[in-house]
User: What shape does this take?
Amino acid sequence: MSVLDMKLDRSFDVFDSDRDGRLEKSDVTGLSDRLAESLGCAPDAVAHLRASLADLWDTVFQKMDRNDDGGVDRQEFRAAFRARIVTDQNRIWERIRNMSNAWTELADRDGDGMLSREEYTSLLHGMFRLPRETFDEAFNRLDADGDGQLSRAEISSAMKEYYTSEDHTARGNQFFGRL
Assistant: This one.
């Protein structure tokens, strides 16, 4: 299995909140509600994130459903994501960046425009229910300038590497923790 396939499988698992092996719109948009709950925010506070996740579903994920069964399985996700990256790079990155900016804004509790280690850990633990320990090493790798904070540029760069790089040592591979 290629490095990119491993990362796409991890991403699929992160989005598949009910663990049924299929992505549906409720899996994707539900990430915003989980984040609101974990951060102690009112559901209205995540409206921008919910809208960006719904847009990501409507414009990217839903089109992956090749057999029209209302969901996206792992193979559809892998194949379509690889194809979409090649043919629609600018639009898909705009949507992913919008989603990333929306969740970064929510997680940035002190409003400095950066994510501290705790803010990053709370964000990913809250949205994806991955263990907090998963993110210590990831944070260190993603913090490219070593300032103890993740900027939007570092987060965006890491996400782009995560979804495109076949390089096993790429910094962005750590976005959801060690592969």
